[in-house]
Task: inverse folding
């Protein structure tokens, strides 16, 4: 249990540092949550959304799952989108994948993963749609391209959700973006698939 004690010690040190830098930080944070961004990303522990875009708590609303998938049957993700769009009135939804994603790698492989195979099927569907381009590549390149293609598909899926369609139908300012993060250099890349209802 020592490793858990370390987490509480880290938390205490972080809270003290935040108060030293900005004595009113926590009192402001309690008052409201008003982020302009919803981040839909991978659960991978190496892709910490707040840190890689240098935003503080309260500045970005986050949903994470294996391989940043957005599907019509995932009521958790759809509820997050609805809350972000309807209640928080975010202006940007960012779908962010990352190169070397273990979920994408698993979707490319022949191994069976029991329950997780139901989730990976969504990524396998993306791979099937782009099989010609993917089959021409070696393993690492294939995985990286599928990581990008998966983000692009998830952007399309976000755009088709009822909360986003409703927002655009009412004239709400809302943009959907597709980005990819490279763990090798820590940099984000825009996949140039941003959408808005113009």
Result:
């Amino acid at each position: 249990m020592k490793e858990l004690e370390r987490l509480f010690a880290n938390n205490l040190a972080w809270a003290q540092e935040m108060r030293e830098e900005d004595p009113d930080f926590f009192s402001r944070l309690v008052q409201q949550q008003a982020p302009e961004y919803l981040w839909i990303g991978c659960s991978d522990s190496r892709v910490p959304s707040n840190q890689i875009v240098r935003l503080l708590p309260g500045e970005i609303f986050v949903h994470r799952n294996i391989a940043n998938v957005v599907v019509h049957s995932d009521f958790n993700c759809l509820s997050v989108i609805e809350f972000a769009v309807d209640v928080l009135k975010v202006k940007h939804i960012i779908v962010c994948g990352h190169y070397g994603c273990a979920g994408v790698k698993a979707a490319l492989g022949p191994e069976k993963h029991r329950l997780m195979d139901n989730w990976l099927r969504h990524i396998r569907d993306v791979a099937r749609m782009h099989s010609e381009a993917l089959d021409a590549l070696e393993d690492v390149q294939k995985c990286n391209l599928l990581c990008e293609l998966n983000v692009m598909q998830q952007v399309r899926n976000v755009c088709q959700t009822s909360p986003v369609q409703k927002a655009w139908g009412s004239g709400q300012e809302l943009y959907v973006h597709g980005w990819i993060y490279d763990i090798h250099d820590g940099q984000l890349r825009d996949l140039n698939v941003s959408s808005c209802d113009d």
